[in-house]
Amino acid sequence: MTFPTTPVRRTGPPRAVPDTPGRGARGGFAGAVAAEWTKLWSVRGPYLCLLAGLAVTGVFTYYYASIARINEHPVQPVGSAAASSAILVQFTVVVLATVAVTSEYSTGSVRASLLSVPRRHLAQGAKALVVAVVAFVAGTTFAVVGTAVAWVGFDGRASFAAGPSLLQVLAVGLYEALVAVLSVGVAFATRHPAGALSILVTLLWALPSILLGLGGPTLSDINDRLPHGAGDHFMRLGAEAPYPPLTAVLIVAAWAATAHLIGLYVLRRRDA
């Protein structure tokens, strides 16, 4: 037996179909950036890294300036102390950027992140952008504090010019931002904090130290093509560098872009 059916007429407005995040969603890339910003500041790690960077900057720059004053080194720009400290302080940014990625893999929360932003390049790009902005602001802050502390430590054995000092502050911030992008790419490629930090410490400190320690023009040229050597030349505004500051920052940017693309390849290949 069959019963007649009466079609149901919808009197209200049509029900909206929810957007899929990352695929034409209302949030889109801006929403992914906002989510990454919230995740970054929801834990204590970034605060500790930035406080450590501030402390290391103050101690190192005062020590650097005091040694230059005691040994009566030639007068140099006061910003050189902040530029020198950035090579050490960069590892606070490295840890911050690395943990921002690897902590999600260790807790499994990366699955939720990729479900909310299915397009892998948007997910990785949002995280890299947030960490880079934080690193830039932190780097410029460190440079300003380091320059002020060094001025006291130099006690007259340093020169100060507003233009070059401002350029060095911005150069330190840009270098730290590129290091953050580099760290995010390596972290996505390795997915483990120990592996990522081992690679980054080797690339940014151990290998340059070995090359400079052994000496020789060939090894020095190799170091000038690494992020450490190029970044140092850039932050010193090309002083005694084999290439101009623009070339130096492009070398660092090329390393960061390469790491970012490798990390994206692994993310797409292995997924979560």
Would you give an account of this structure?
The chain is mostly helical and 272 residues long. It has one domain. Helices cover 75% and strands 1% of the residues. It is built from 10 helices and 2 strands. The chain has helices at 28-40, 45-70, 79-107, 110-116, 120-154, 162-190, 193-214, 217-224, 227-235, 245-270; strands spanning 76-77, 158-159. Strands 1-2 form a two-stranded parallel sheet. Helix 3 (79-107) packs antiparallel against helix 5, helix 3 (79-107) runs antiparallel to helix 7 (193-214) and helix 5 runs antiparallel to helix 6. The longest helix is centred in the middle third of the chain and has 35 residues, at 120-154. It is globular. Mean pLDDT is 88; it is low at 10-26.
List keywords for this structure.
1% strand; mainly alpha; single chain; 272 residues; two-stranded parallel ribbon
Layout of strands and helices, then pairs:
Blueprint: H1 28-40, H2 45-70, E1 76-77, H3 79-107, H4 110-116, H5 120-154, E2 158-159, H6 162-190, H7 193-214, H8 217-224, H9 227-235, H10 245-270
Parallel strand pairs: 1-2
